[in-house]
Write a structure and sequence with these properties.
This protein is of the alpha+beta class. It has 4 helices and 6 strands; from the N terminus they run αβαββββαβα. The strands form 2 sheets. Strands 1-2-5-6 form a 4-stranded mixed sheet, sandwiched between helices. Strands 3-4 form a two-stranded antiparallel sheet.
């Protein structure tokens, strides 16, 4: 399953289970842009590594208050961490992890989700019982 197919699955899940929750996918990395479009898009971005999904829902979980949920979605077979808990050496994943860390410091919940099942679990834990 491609990441785009997972986006579609997650979008369907969100529409069905959480119809009143606002969310947005960042699809630019998944699109085949012309050279001109790619240049325009690059100029608009602060840096690479922006997460794939933002869920605009303020939530208090335990003693933490979050302004929303960001998810960086990966295929289920992608490894983010080594057995010892360190990030893998992949520079793109490290870039994405750095952005997720920055978002956490700004008061957002921000996580990697490998596969639909993991994304669903994180979403359900964040949003609570589905509608």
């Amino acid at each position: 399953m491609t990441e785009h197919e997972m986006y579609m699955q997650i979008a369907d899940y969100m529409r069905y289970q959480y119809p009143d929750v606002i969310y947005r996918f960042d699809l630019a990395a998944d699109l085949k842009l012309s050279i001109g479009q790619a240049a325009k898009h690059k100029r608009l971005q602060r840096r690479r590594g922006y997460p794939d999904l933002f869920i605009a829902f303020v939530r208090s979980l335990g003693d933490r208050y979050y302004h929303g949920l960001f998810l960086e979605i990966k295929r289920p077979d992608v490894k983010i961490y080594k057995k010892n808990g360190e990030l893998v050496a992949n520079s793109h994943i490290r870039e994405q992890a750095a952005v997720l860390d920055e978002l956490r410091k700004c008061g957002y919940k921000a996580e990697f989700a490998c596969g639909f099942d993991e994304a669903k679990k994180i979403i359900d834990e964040y949003l609570g019982d589905p509608a």
